[in-house]
Write a structure and sequence with these properties.
The structure is a single chain. By secondary structure, this protein is an alpha+beta fold. The chain has a single domain, classed as Electron Transport, Fmn-binding Protein, Chain A (Pnp Oxidase, Chain A). It has 6 helices and 16 strands. It has helices at residues 10-20, 70-78, 91-97, 107-110, 174-177, 203-214; strands at 24-25, 27-32, 38-43, 46-50, 55-60, 62-64, 67-68, 80-85, 115-116, 125-126, 131-143, 147-159, 164-166, 171-172, 180-182, 189-191. Strands 3-2-8-11-12-5-4 form a 7-stranded antiparallel sheet, sandwiched between helices. Strands 1-15-16 form a 3-stranded antiparallel sheet, with no helix packed on it. Strands 6-7 form a two-stranded antiparallel sheet. A hairpin with a 4-residue loop joins strand 13 (164-166) and strand 14 (171-172). It binds flavin mononucleotide.
Length: 216
């Protein structure tokens, strides 16, 4: 079935996108406003976009017309944020921080979140998150009137000790992190425990396969 986005209202286009672009990793972002008030909220329009420089991107909307979500506003005002990743263990607390509280309410306080001071930026990281990335703002790409793509450079990454296989070679036991992803609809999520392996095919091995087939 064809869905022509030129003829579909924004809310319906959004439904098609979030029902099909899955699973999406979740950036659980901690920021501070100019007065130092802590803020935390999850965002699943999120991914990594470059290794060098190390860049993450997050699509952040508005609460109402002309009122950007506090996270985007704080990042714009201070240029700093921490992206925490969400494990099965912290999912309920992540969900509490998604409540659309009035400005000035501290979500980390509401969700009973312990935080740990960051090394390079003012906002702290979430203590129970298995991975946290300290980031500085590179650019906000305005997307229409009510959304912005926040691009941030990762300055440092904290990974839970038990998940580090080799700190010199930077090998991480990814399944041990038990990260979750956002799926379709309002409340569906995926675990990252249903794995299979598929190795990359070297070009020479692929060519050899053609030769073998031709000689049959
Ligand atoms: C799992 C999850 C993912 C979300 N992803 C996004 C997102 O990608 N973009 C967005 O604007 N809001 C997203 N939200 C909604 C925000 O978390 C919510 O509006 C929050 O109240 C914003 O808080 P803030 O105003 O403190 O920044 C998501 C909510 C949940 C539960």
């Amino acid at each position: 079935m064809l869905f022509d986005f030129a003829t579909i209202p924004a809310r319906e286009r959004y439904k098609l996108m979030v029902s099909t672009i899955v699973p999406r990793p979740i950036a659980w972002i901690v920021t501070q406003d100019l007065q130092g008030q802590l803020n935390a909220a999850p965002f699943s329009f999120f991914n990594g976009f470059a290794g060098d420089p190390p860049v993450v991107g997050i699509g952040i909307g508005s609460h109402d017309a002309g009122r950007p979500k506090d996270t985007r506003r704080n990042i714009r005002d201070t240029g700093q944020f921490v992206v925490n990743l969400v494990s099965e263990e912290v999912r309920e607390r992540m969900n509490i921080t998604a409540i659309e509280f009035e400005r000035g309410v501290s979500e980390p306080h509401e969700a009973g979140l312990a935080t740990v001071a960051s090394v390079h930026v003012k906002p702290p990281r979430i203590a129970d998150s298995p991975v946290s990335m300290e980031c500085e703002l590179m650019q906000i790409v305005e997307l229409g009137k009510e959304s912005g793509l926040v691009l941030g450079r990762i300055l440092a990454m904290h990974v839970r000790d038990e998940a580090v296989i080799d700190p010199v070679k930077h090998h991480i036991d990814t399944p041990q992190l038990k990260l979750i992803g956002r799926m379709h609809g309002a409340g569906w999520y995926a675990r990252t425990s249903d794995l299979f392996r598929m190795d990359r095919i070297p070009r020479d091995a692929w060519k050899l396969r053609d030769t073998k087939l031709e000689s049959k």
